[in-house]
Design a protein that fits this description.
73 residues, 4 helices, 59% helix
Length: 73
């Protein structure tokens, strides 16, 4: 059994793990709670892009997502 193809229908499987690390970085850098960082991230342009499989943003590491968040909001 090989690695499954990533599609718009299953990209959501990869999002929580990737987002967790980025949220930790946001909370630490901005000195806010994890919950507030989570809210900020889930309302950001970065998260909208992350949900779109075609952007391939899901492929980025947590650090990559954090840097993208800092750049693009």
């Amino acid at each position: 059994m090989g690695i499954p193809e990533i599609t718009q229908e299953n990209v959501h499987i990869f999002i929580p793990h990737k987002v967790a690390g980025a949220i930790d970085m946001i909370a630490e850098e901005e000195q806010i709670s994890i919950l507030d960082a989570l809210r900020k991230f889930y309302h950001s342009n970065t998260y909208k892009q992350l949900e779109d499989e075609q952007t391939k943003l899901w492929y980025e590491s947590a650090i990559g997502l954090y840097k993208y968040y800092l750049e693009k909001g």
